[in-house]
Amino acid sequence: MSFALVVIAKAPVAGRSKTRLCPPCTPHEAAALAEAALRDTLDAVLATPADRRVLVLDGDPGPWLPAGLELLRQRGDGLDQRLAAAFEDVGGPALLIGMDTPQATPELLAASGRRLLTPGTDAVLGPALDGGYWGLGLRRPDRALLEGIPMSVADTGARQHQRLCAAGLRVACLPPLRDVDRIVDARAVAALAPGGRFARTLRTIEPLAAPEPRPRTGDAAPSPVVAVRA
């Protein structure tokens, strides 16, 4: 049995993306960080063994979209409905993640997919440190498992876990991750993956926010980053 790896995301657009980073970021800086986080996430997805790799998008694709991904449109009103629709549209076993955890590695995503397919597991849930969740995997789509769960509140993850358990599903928990909501989160996440696009972009905005990765002996030093502001 195989699984689909699904990313649900907004197209990075100034004024619509990562608005809780403003201030201190400008809308254009927040959108640049959103694009970098999305690109890091999609790179990790493409490097993860999976039967399908799907982007479920709100908005229009841009030059940031790499080859090798199926593209589906989000449908539904609230985020709970959009998540439920994404699982329905993909069908079959699926692990769904967002674009707010650019530190997620292919190794973590592959292990999460394997956990979903382990006999005796019906669902997997990856808690976020803010009380939400960064990943949700279901063996079979079921709107009733998601609709009505309040989103972006302190106990979203706990409520989702309770809903899954109340439906009789056997739920495995994935490692917790910090997602990017505010600038303090951006700094912490960039420090976890200093070589990624997200960290490099943050350094153009806040040069001291995340240390650059040290080159190994014999490696070329990283290219200098030029600060750009909209």
Automatic annotation (TrEMBL):
Stored Gene3D superfamilies: Spore Coat Polysaccharide Biosynthesis Protein SpsA, Chain A (3.90.550.10)
Protein name: Glycosyltransferase
Lineage: Bacteria, Bacillati, Actinomycetota, Thermoleophilia, Solirubrobacterales
Domain of life per record: Bacteria
Matching InterPro entries: Nucleotide-diphossugar_trans (IPR029044), Trfase_1_rSAM/seldom-assoc (IPR018641)
Annotated stretches, region: Disordered: 208-230
PANTHER family with a match to the protein in the record: GLYCOSYLTRANSFERASE, SLL1095 PROTEIN
